[in-house]
């Protein structure tokens, strides 16, 4: 037996490990199982090239709990270590000094990344153990070794009688970490971190029914036996070639990833690249609500099938954070940190690749089955519109597949839309005016008026539509968007011919003065317009610019500072050519008030603005007129 001190320049490494990594102490199991997997895969490689003169067989990794002895065992059948290798890989851990170590990582106490920086995977065991043993037998023809350390720099290393190849690590669990002797806890951690490891991981046993005998009667009761319980899928879908998978395989894997998700994904994108970096994965488009509540932590990041994190910010473009699925890259370290992601060039390349791959897939789906793509549009539009605003490279490609639906359920690309409406919706100044509604029901009367003119009206109802149309206007010369209730239709798309007012200038001034004394000034600006005599006498509009800036301010970015808190302002457009305008002008003061109030309420009703007490009073007055 030999004894010695672990070669570290800090007085005692283990309190530092515990202090700095305690918030992430559960990762010890991930680290130890990952080490066991590496040892097994390395043996596979050595046997395949003839350097290891041993039978690889069908090795597994086993996790065992000894609750009574307060021990946790991690056992592999990998290449093992000789005593010299234990001395080299376990004892010679070099640090530049405690002071530098503490100074460098003082701001990242919760960052498990410091393990990876120093090869401390094995030493993470001391976050939960007061003593650690290693019993290991190399594939080489050398005696087994037994290493023991109680958390101080002192260790013992002696020969052992172990005869089978591989390594067993025994953790003597500390009093403050006894939760790691609970079966449910270990199962939870194995499922979280090691669910898709490439080597079978055994944890306990499970009951399995024996096959029903052919001659069994109706009263047959199944017999159960105990079988090994393997917790992982060693060959998940993302590790396979897309050509080897069918639609059902992708859906089955989605259910495996998200067992509590009952809706099927809309479609998937299989990532598979090996140059200039390695990346595999599958991203799924789930059905999404039409809001900006980004459902982060749905995409899982793996490194060689080892779970790293479900915070993939920086790796996956932000607009795709609403998706679900898996990204696996050996070029991202196992102990990834946010500062690493911000600094690493490969990460940006990966993000750009994912953006391009998603755009290519969407274009392919659009071209292959446009009808199906249109049917799914409302479930994916928020992601794509957000992508157009946040990712220039995605915006460049989006014209090929981003759709603009109409209130009649027709779907256009922007190029198709321009072609369809140019003849009818170009104003007298040569501007192409795209009419849109944000609420088909609330703006129905305005949509109806526009359609009577033969105009197309888009239905753009996502929360970021104001930002999007602002960008489209900036990038498309002589193109402007106007919501159908922003003004009277003849004002939204001005043609050469203008209506002549039936009222004189003096009569118009008198009518406007009368209206302004009755209509609430704090909410409405009165405008007299000479419209067709058959047009509505009172129309409430909301100016496009003011409303759009307010919406942009409310959804963040863009717009004018503070406009999100501005009160709603409307224009009351009064048709000076309507019979009602003449009637109001010629009525007495009492009748004027009654006529204006009723007409204003009707206009508000058409905009969905008549609510609460005002609506109740209006209904009551209306019933009175029926008596």
From TrEMBL:
Name of this protein: Chaperone protein HtpG
Gene3D superfamilies: 3.30.230.80, 3.40.50.11260, Heat shock protein 90, C-terminal domain, Histidine kinase-like ATPase, C-terminal domain
Residues that bind ATP: 31, 35, 76, 81, 96-97, 167, 338
Source organism per UniProt: Flavobacterium urocaniciphilum
Matching CDD domains: HATPase_Hsp90-like
GO molecular function term, any single one: ATP binding
Protein family: Belongs to the heat shock protein 90 family.
Swiss-Prot/TrEMBL keywords: ATP-binding, Chaperone, Cytoplasm, Nucleotide-binding, Stress response
InterPro entries referenced in this protein's UniProt entry, alphabetically: HATPase_C_sf (IPR036890), Heat_shock_protein_90_CS (IPR019805), HSP90_C (IPR037196), Hsp90_fam (IPR001404), Hsp90_N (IPR020575), Ribosomal_Su5_D2-typ_SF (IPR020568)
């Amino acid at each position: 037996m030999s004894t010695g001190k672990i070669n570290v320049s800090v007085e005692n490494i283990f309190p530092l490990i515990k202090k700095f990594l305690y918030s992430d102490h559960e990762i010890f199991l991930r680290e130890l199982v990952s080490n066991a997997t590496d040892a097994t895969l390395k043996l596979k490689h050595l046997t395949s090239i003839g350097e290891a003169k041993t039978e690889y067989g069908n090795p597994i990794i086993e996790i065992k709990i000894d609750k009574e002895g307060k021990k946790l065992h991690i056992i592999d059948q990998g290449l093992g270590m000789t005593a010299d290798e234990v001395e080299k890989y376990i004892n010679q851990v070099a640090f530049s000094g405690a002071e530098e170590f503490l100074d460098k990582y003082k701001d990242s106490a919760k960052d498990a990344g410091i393990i990876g920086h120093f090869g401390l995977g094995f030493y993470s065991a001391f976050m939960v153990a007061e003593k650690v043993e290693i019993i290991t037998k190399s594939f080489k023809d050398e005696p087994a070794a037994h290493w023991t350390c109680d958390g101080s720099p002192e260790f013992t290393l002696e020969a052992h009688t172990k005869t089978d190849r591989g390594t067993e690590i025994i953790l003597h669990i500390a009093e403050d970490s006894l939760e790691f002797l609970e079966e449910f806890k270990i199962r939870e951690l194995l499922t979280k971190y090691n669910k898709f490891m490439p080597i079978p991981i055994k944890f306990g046993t499970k009951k399995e029914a024996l096959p029903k005998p052919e001659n069994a009667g109706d009263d047959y009761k199944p017999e159960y036996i105990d079988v090994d319980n393997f917790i992982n899928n060693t060959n998940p879908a993302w590790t396979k070639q897309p050509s080897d998978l069918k639609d059902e395989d992708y859906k089955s894997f989605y259910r495996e990833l998200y067992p509590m998700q009952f809706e099927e994904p809309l479609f998937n994108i299989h990532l598979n690249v090996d140059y200039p970096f390695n990346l595999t994965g599958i991203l799924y488009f789930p059905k999404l609500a039409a809001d900006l509540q980004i459902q982060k932590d749905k995409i899982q990041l793996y490194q060689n099938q080892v779970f790293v994190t479900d915070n993939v910010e920086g790796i996956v473009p932000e607009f795709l954070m609403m998706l679900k699925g898996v990204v696996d890259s050996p070029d991202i370290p196992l102990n990834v940190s946010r500062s690493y992601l911000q600094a690493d060039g490969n990460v940006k390349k990966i993000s750009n690749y994912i953006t391009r791959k998603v755009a290519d897939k969407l274009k392919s789906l659009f071209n292959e089955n446009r009808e199906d793509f249109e049917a799914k549009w409302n479930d994916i539009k928020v992601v794509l519109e957000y992508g157009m605003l946040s990712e220039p490279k995605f915006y460049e490609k989006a014209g090929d597949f981003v759709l603009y639906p109409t209130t009649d359920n027709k779907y256009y690309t922007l190029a198709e839309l321009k072609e369809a409406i140019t003849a009818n919706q170009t104003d007298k100044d040569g501007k192409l005016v795209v009419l849109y509604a944000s609420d088909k029901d609330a703006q129905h009367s305005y949509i109806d008026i526009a359609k009577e003119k033969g105009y197309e009206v888009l239905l753009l109802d996502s929360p970021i539509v104001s930002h999007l149309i602002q960008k489209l206007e900036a990038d498309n010369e002589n193109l402007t968007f106007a919501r159908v209730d922003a003004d009277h239709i003849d004002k939204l798309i001005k043609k050469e011919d203008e209506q002549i007012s039936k009222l004189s200038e003096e009569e118009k001034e008198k009518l406007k003065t009368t209206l302004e004394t009755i209509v609430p000034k704090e909410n409405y600006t009165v405008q007299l317009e000479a419209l067709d005599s058959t047009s509505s006498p009172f129309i409430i509009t909301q100016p496009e610019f003011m409303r759009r800036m307010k919406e942009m301010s409310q959804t963040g970015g863009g717009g004018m500072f503070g406009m999100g808190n501005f009160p709603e302002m409307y224009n009351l457009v009064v048709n000076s050519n309507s019979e009602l305008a003449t009637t109001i002008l010629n009525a007495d003061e009492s009748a004027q008030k009654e006529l204006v109030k009723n007409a204003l309420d009707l206009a508000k009703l058409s905009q969905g603005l008549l609510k609460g007490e005002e609506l109740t009073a209006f209904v009551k007055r209306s019933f009175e007129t029926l008596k």
